[in-house]
Structure formats: structure tokens, C-alpha cells
UniProtKB/TrEMBL annotation:
The protein's name in its UniProt record: RNA polymerase II transcription factor B subunit 2
Record-annotated Transcription factor Tfb2 C-terminal domain positions: 418-483
Subcellular location: Nucleus
Molecular function terms, GO-annotated: ATPase activator activity; double-stranded DNA binding
Similarity-based family: Belongs to the TFB2 family.
GO cellular component assignments: transcription factor TFIIH core complex; transcription factor TFIIH holo complex
Organism: Ostreococcus lucimarinus (strain CCE9901)
Protein's GO biological process: nucleotide-excision repair
Main location: nucleus
InterPro entries, per database record: Tfb2_C, TFIIH_p52/Tfb2
Lineage: Eukaryota, Viridiplantae, Chlorophyta, Mamiellophyceae, Mamiellales
Length: 495
């Protein structure tokens, strides 16, 4: 059971970090507008904070004139580590504009953001479970609606398939979002989202195959490879951050507020769209359905959405008590075994995980639930040239090591990790550059020496061999050097 709890904790940490980083990137005016928009933003921030920051928030929420800085210091232990933890928590809350320091030094007072505190008190006093019920958004009482809601297993399979199709589209292994019936009515263009986020190159090529045209991504960028190695929650926030940036400024706050509200809604339960959500929020629902975060359906000309497990952890707060969370944590325990002969075995049926392994291994066999490959110099260096870092490769195979090999220390043979790093260093020993060879100089005279001198003066000389009277210059300087050689030759002929 311990590994499952550890995996759940890791998922929570990743989600918290991605969510807080997203908030810190918002402009102060956007944060203030977000905190004033609904109680969900205040609850989401509270849930994503560490224990010290939570204590500070809860104490200040009910104190209108704030607290003395010296009083805040007493809320932690007397040790140096406690003081540093308090300092980090206060700095993070200030960056999030949850708190503000009035004055300087020991006389400073720490005050909570008024809009944030008001909405947090509203949520705590009313109970966040009742916030949705009061708006009439929960459709659990309608028997016709309940019959349309898929069971947890079906919903999880749907979300996983949607997300994997999206990632396979990024890698170029699938064009799922162009298949008939695969699109959901909405405005989200997944490939445009990838390009805007810098995960794929901006150009696409139209290819003809079997008389039909299809679009193919020109290539995955270094950021795209790093994206594939992240956790699902981190990946979701990368795409959502870009999605919100692309939204109209007038609707961005509404979109963020709805996303945070979504994290408190129960996976597998239907919520009404028609007559409850604004037009902006309904657009967001349709777009999130593309990503597998929501499942939508219609009953009696009214539309409903059902959050999936992917949506429930956007702002962190996994407890590990939910059965689906435990299953997800168990799945995250690991599936990769690496042997000292560089052979890689991955016990997985996930097409995405197999495609990720293909980024830096040579694929030898692929069975329904097993991938067998080899770490080779060529496969690793191809990944490095594409922008993957050696430490990312090592970190990935360690983080996804099979539970049987995790009992050993190290879980991945040290020789394999060291060899991956050595292959990376091999690429740093020399740098390839296009050049032009100059040869057949006269054996007598100063012509060769004069050309070498001019090439050095212009910073174009790459290599020289005085014994055989040969030199190479940068290809970019070839036209200039041709003119120099011609001028020197005319000058020597005149003499």
C-alpha cells in the first residue's frame, strides 16, 4: 500500500506545483479579478497551499485589519527551519496576492486580500458541497439524466482514450482528431494549441495518401519532448495555460473560475449546462471534452457534462481515499525494467507510453501488453538531437521503474545511467559545421600563407595543414574568401 500512497502524493505535488505556477504567471489585475469572481478560486488556492500557508490564510481570513508580522512569526516553531518555512510561505502568498504587507520591518502588518477573504468565508460558512446545489447545477435527482451517465470504469476508459489520442497526435503516431466521429462540437483546435504552446513546429505539410489529404505535424520541439515526459496533471496545465492565453481577455477570468469550480465537482456525476452556465462556460465545456476532462450528453434538448478523473486533480488535493485515485496511483507505480545489457522491457498496453519509449530506445518487439526495446547510442543521441536531455531520460526510466525492480537500489543499473550521460557528452566533444576545403596551393611562394592570414583575420579559418598546404573555412565565409583569394592572386601575379 505504501507505493500507492507515494504515487498519489507525487500526483498531488505535481498538480499543486503546476497550478500555483500558473497562478503566479497571471498579472496582478487578473488575480484580483479571479479572487473576486467566485469562492472556487479561494478554495482552490487554499487546497494547493502547504500546511503553514493554509494556517496563515485561515487565521487572516477572519481578521479584517490583519495581523502583526511578529504575531505571524509565532504561528510556527522557534527553529531556524520553521522560520525559513514561514518565510517561504509568506513569500508565496504575497506572489499569489493572497496577502499584502502594510508597512515595513517589525511594525508591518499582514492583511488578506479582501475579495479572496470574502469568498473564502462564504465557502467555509456555506459548505462548498452546497455551492453547486444552490446554483441548480447538480442534475443528480433526474432519473433520465442518471441513466445517461456512464459508470466509473467506462468514464475512466473514455478519459484515458481521449488523452492518449491527444498525446499520440502530438507525437505524430495518430491523427485521431481528424477521424470521422472523433471530433466533439466545439472550437478547440488541438494541433493549433500544440503549436501555440511551442510543443510542435509552426508549419504543417499536407500529404496525399490513398487519394485523401491529411495534415502531419512538421516536428515535435524540445519543449514537446519534455512535455511528453511530464505527469498528466502537469501536461494538462501546460495546455490549459495556453488555452486561457488564447481566450479573449474578457472571458479568461470566467474560464479560469469555471476550471477551478470543476475541480470540486464529483467525477462521475452529471451537472447541467443549459440554463446554468454562461455562453463562455459552455464553450469551455465543449473544449474540455476534446481533452477528456469532461463527458457531455443531451437529454430532452438539455445538455449536461460529467467531470472525469482528469478534471478532479487540476488544483491538487488528491487524498488517495477514492477508489479511482488508488487505481491511478497503482498504475503510476511503474512498468519499466532496464537490464545491464541495455534491454528495456515495459509492461504496458498504453500506446502513449510505448511512443514515449520509442523516443529514446530502438523498438524491437511490440506486444499487446509488452514493449521490448534497446537503449542504443543511435537511439539516445537521436533523442538528444531532438531536444531531450540525458537527465530527462534517466529520470523517466527511474520514475517509471517496475515495482519489482524498485526494491533494488538502484532501480535502474548505474552502468546504464552513466552510459546515457556518456553518449550525451560524446555529442558535446565536437561540433559539426559546414565548411569549404581550399587546396592545390603552389608549393613555393607566400600565396598560401597570405590566404591563411586573411582567413584568420576574418574569423573564417577552421583548420589548416601547413605541410600539405590545405585549409578549411566556414561555408558562410566562402564567397568572401573567394574574392580575397582572387585579389591576392592578382596582386601576386602583378609582382
Amino acid at each position: 500500500m505504501a507505493p500507492a500512497r507515494d504515487a498519489a502524493t507525487a500526483s498531488t505535488s505535481a498538480a499543486d506545483g503546476a497550478f500555483v505556477a500558473f497562478l503566479c504567471a497571471l498579472a496582478p489585475r487578473e488575480l484580483d479579478a479571479l479572487y473576486a469572481s467566485s469562492p472556487w478560486s479561494a478554495l482552490a488556492v487554499l487546497r494547493a497551499c502547504d500546511s503553514i500557508a493554509k494556517q496563515i490564510i485561515l487565521r487572516l481570513a477572519y481578521v479584517d485589519d490583519g495581523a502583526d508580522a511578529r504575531e505571524c512569526a509565532k504561528w510556527c516553531g522557534d527553529g531556524a527551519s520553521d522560520a525559513r518555512a514561514l518565510e517561504r510561505a509568506m513569500a508565496r502568498l504575497a506572489r499569489l496576492r493572497v496577502t499584502t504587507a502594510l508597512g515595513e520591518g517589525e511594525d508591518a502588518r499582514v492583511v488578506a486580500n479582501e475579495a479572496f477573504a470574502n469568498n473564502l468565508r462564504r465557502a467555509l460558512e456555506r459548505g462548498f458541497v452546497n455551492l453547486d446545489d444552490g446554483d441548480g447545477a447538480d442534475a443528480r435527482e433526474d432519473a433520465g439524466v442518471a441513466a445517461k451517465v456512464p459508470d466509473r470504469a467506462t468514464l475512466n476508459a473514455y478519459a484515458k482514450a481521449k488523452w492518449e489520442d491527444l498525446l499520440l497526435t502530438l507525437t505524430g503516431a495518430s491523427n485521431a482528431f481528424s477521424r470521422p466521429g472523433a471530433k466533439v462540437k466545439g472550437r478547440l483546435d488541438a494541433q493549433a494549441l500544440f503549436r501555440a504552446a511551442g510543443l510542435t513546429t509552426a508549419t504543417t505539410a499536407a500529404l496525399k495518401k490513398g487519394g485523401q489529404k491529411r495534415l502531419k505535424n512538421a516536428g515535435v520541439t524540445a519543449e514537446g519532448f519534455a512535455f511528453l515526459l511530464q505527469t498528466a496533471q502537469e501536461q494538462i496545465w501546460v495546455l490549459l495555460t495556453q488555452y486561457i492565453r488564447d481566450s479573449q481577455k474578457t472571458s479568461a477570468t470566467s474560464a479560469i473560475s469555471f476550471l477551478l469550480r470543476l475541480t470540486f465537482q464529483e467525477p462521475g456525476r452529471a451537472y447541467a449546462m443549459t440554463g446554468v452556465l454562461s455562453d463562455t462556460e459552455q464553450d469551455v465545456v465543449l473544449d474540455l471534452t476534446h481533452l477528456g476532462l469532461l463527458y457531455t450528453f443531451e437529454v430532452k434538448k438539455k445538455f449536461y457534462y460529467v467531470p472525469t478523473l482528469l478534471a478532479s486533480g487540476l488544483s491538487g488535493g488528491f487524498t488517495g481515499d477514492d477508489g479511482d485515485t488508488k487505481a491511478a496511483a497503482a498504475a503510476a507505480e511503474g512498468h519499466i525494467i532496464v537490464e545491464t545489457n541495455y534491454r528495456v522491457y515495459a509492461y504496458t498496453s498504453s500506446a502513449v507510453e510505448m511512443e514515449i519509449l520509442r523516443l529514446f530506445t530502438r523498438a524491437d518487439y511490440r506486444l499487446p501488453n509488452l514493449y521490448v526495446g534497446m537503449l542504443t547510442r543511435e537511439s539516445v543521441q537521436n533523442a538528444l538531437r531532438a531536444g531531450v536531455d540525458a537527465e530527462q531520460i534517466v529520470g523517466y526510466i527511474r520514475a517509471h521503474a517496475h515495482k519489482q525492480v524498485r526494491r533494488k537500489k538502484p532501480s535502474v543499473p548505474s552502468t546504464v545511467c552513466d552510459q546515457i550521460r556518456l553518449w550525451a557528452r560524446d555529442m558535446e566533444r565536437m561540433e559539426a559545421e559546414e565548411c569549404v576545403l581550399y587546396c592545390d596551393f603552389p608549393q613555393a611562394g607566400t600565396f598560401y600563407g597570405a590566404v591563411v592570414s586573411e582567413a584568420e583575420k576574418r574569423g573564417a579559418l577552421l583548420w589548416r595543414d601547413d605541410a600539405s598546404r590545405r585549409l578549411t573555412v566556414r561555408a558562410s565565409a566562402h564567397d568572401e574568401m573567394k574574392a580575397v583569394v582572387g585579389a591576392l592572386k592578382q596582386k601576386l601575379d602583378a609582382v
